[in-house]
Amino acid sequence: MAQDFLLPDIGEGIVECELVEWLVKEGDRVEEDQAVADVMTDKALVQIPSMHNGVITRLYHAKGDIAKVHAPLYEIEPEGEVQETEVAPVATTENLAGGAVKEFLLPDIGEGIVECEVVEWLVAAGDEIVEDQPICDVMTDKALVQIPAIENGVVSELFCEKGNIAKVHAPLFSYRVAGEADSDNANTAPQAATQAPAVAAAPVDTLVDKTTNNKKAIASPAVRRVAREMNIDLTQVQGSGKNGRVLKSDLLAPQAAAPVAKQETASVSAQASAPVTTAIAGDVAANHVSNVEPMRGIKAAMARQMVDSVTTIPHFTYSEEVDMTELIALRGGMKDAYKEQGIKLTMMPFFIKALSLAIKEYPVLNSQLTADGEELHYMSQHNIGMAVDSKVGLLVPNVKSVQNLSIVDVANEVTRLTDAARAGRLAQEDMKHGTITISNIGALGGTTATPIINKPEVAIVALGKVQKLPRFDDNGNVVARQIMNVSWSGDHRVIDGGTIARFCNLWKSYLENPSSMMMAMS
Predict the structure, then answer these.
(1) Known catalytic membership, residue 61
(2) Is residue 348 part of a domain?
(3) Catalytic pick from 42, 65, 308, 496?
(4) I need a surface site. Which of 41, 205, 220, 502 has the fewest CB within 10 A?
(5) Is this structure's pTM higher than 0.85?
(6) Higher per-residue pLDDT: 501 or 49
(7) Helices (H), strands (E): how many in the chain?
(8) 430 is an active site residue
(9) CB-hemisphere CA count at 13 Å for 277?
(10) How many angstroms separate the Cα of 43 from the Cα of each of 16, 352, 390?
(11) Domain range for residue 335?
(12) Model confidence at 128, in pLDDT bands (50, 70, 90)?
């Protein structure tokens, strides 16, 4: 049966290319990996190979035409028995009673992101879905992302369980298209072209299924991937699906076929995502380990960032105490009035705005050192980050261009970013381009810390909890004051102790004397 070859992703951000030269013609026999066409993107000339041995039955474009990524490029009649699930790089379409079934491939969800964790399925097999309806929440190493449906239909199968790792460009779920009758042409070009452009195809070198001894196994690409990761020969598994189709549950069943010899070339990511073997489980038990939690998403990203920071930046810490009595009184008198206007006035907007005012006098605190250490870049925008303890891990959104904002403007941004972070719905843009960071450990308790710099920034401050402590006034009398300890960490390649001390003293003066802060803002 003839099958369409869909033009795969051929470069980041490329959606179309020019057909420069056909290297074959209709009726020609081709071999797997034989060059079929030369196409020109806006960056380079790319050669497109054949996926199978077979005969070219149709060329969809003439020389000089524009070909679209994820659209049919040519049609081939494969030699031998080739499963349809091995062909379509965008989505697999089958002829089943009740309509055409398609596989939804996880699209690109962020620059450089190749996998994500399935946090929550918002639908189940058998559910009706409509275009743009949220299907699931996935967690990348940067943010929580919601994946929508691209058209109306009924969910057939979910390929990844909650907590599992889903790969970009791999099948995420399958669905039966609403109102689409069963047809012998389910795999034709118009059918494949209905896939949303946002759904990305697999790279050319991953289009062909490399599982050995699986020529007679009927299984989706997702199931074949799991089989490879578990080292299971699909031809030895009794499929429980339609027409003997092997499902993921078949692979996890106790009676599943014994694993084939383990491939030493298996990728690290595949090994990490595979189920824990009996040997590993026994080792865990022998060492009295009660639980094993994989480092994924935000936690994994934070771990990498922290290691990179402490191993490349010479940190030093500077601590000081700030008398918050006057600022607390000022905020207490203002918060109710602003609350009536729908503005949540916490202490954080004051910390952020005062920091921006101090940066004007000490711009080196708002600089960034290049990776090679050759240049120091002074940042014109004060994008001040604040660490938020969210349900998905520590997130650091930043308030952009604080130097141009009022206290009320900053308060509104703090509220928006905090609410989004705690809900796990921060946009990636909200976490990019930060220039200096505030960590409020005092919200949970504690007075001092040694915070780790959010690279490539050069400084971070940790706020301790506010305590009512005895202090001497100007007349030598003991009075109760609201005292907060702050702990700075600086990049000693850029900042010395004297600079950070003078900078902290200026920031402190704005906080201890709010009227001076208001005057500096005018």
Answers:
(1) no
(2) yes
(3) 496
(4) 205
(5) no
(6) 501
(7) 11, 27
(8) no
(9) 10
(10) 12, 43, 41
(11) 299-521
(12) very high
